[in-house]
Amino acid sequence: MTEAEVLAEFRDAGALLEGHFILSSGLHSPKYLQCARVMSDPARGERLCAALANKVSKAHGDEFDLIVSPAMGGVIVGYETARALGKPSIFCERVDGEFTFRRGFEVSKGARCLMVEDVVTTGLSSRECISAIQEAGGVTVAAAALVDRSGGSADLGVPFTALLALEVPTFKSDALPPELVALQAIKPGSRSLTSGEGR
């Protein structure tokens, strides 16, 4: 699947939004990718995640024991990617602001993990998920996401594969361009902006 085809999937799903958005990192942007919307069509989600799994396999072969994702955004993407790779899938979630494994999920000591996200912007939640994997005894061999919107600047500390690399400008709240100032800001993400978290 080419990047143009991936972007077309987002457009067709109405998942590429334009306006004034406050990202979970606290940065402002004129565009927002709503992966929950693109994944709401099971056939579309399967296509995208199968393409991501294929790209990961070409880069890393079959070197993973487990697929791990951060909740919430990465859960469905991680599951579908794991299904395409024929691997088990678990997720970590925040408890008191820290990623941890619950619901009986465990990472075996030395398990080779692929961390899968929906969108990477700053890479913070991805790095936090990777830290949780390490604390649980696993080894993160690589990371993957449907979309890298960091402009290639996100350093996850492991090899990173994205199905789509999208360069979208982001701005701090005290440095907004006039066209964004003129629009009402929307917070489409699922996380509180007061916690200091961000992607």
SS-based structural class?
alpha/beta
- Between the first and last Cα atoms, what is the distance in angstroms? 25 Å
Widest sheet: strand order?
Answer: 5-4-3-6-7-8
Order of helices and strands: HEEHHEHEEEHEEH
Instruction: Say how many strands there are.
Output: 8
- The stretches of 5 or more residues where confidence is low (pLDDT under 50) are 191-199
Number of helices: 6
Morphology: globular
Look at the structure and give the mean pLDDT: 89
Sheet bearing the most strands, described?
A: 6 strands, mixed
Beta fraction: 25-35%
**Portion in helices:** 25-40%
| Gyration radius, rounded | 16 Å
Summarize this structure as a short list of keywords or feature phrases.
single chain, about 200 residues, alpha/beta, two-stranded antiparallel ribbon, globular, disordered C terminus
Fold and architecture overview:
This protein is an alpha/beta fold and 199 residues long. The protein has helices at residues 3-12, 35-38, 42-60, 74-85, 124-135, 178-181, and strands spanning 16-22, 28-33, 66-70, 89-95, 98-100, 112-120, 139-148, 160-165. The strands form two sheets. The protein has a six-stranded mixed sheet with strand order 5-4-3-6-7-8. 31% of the residues lie in helices and 27% in strands.
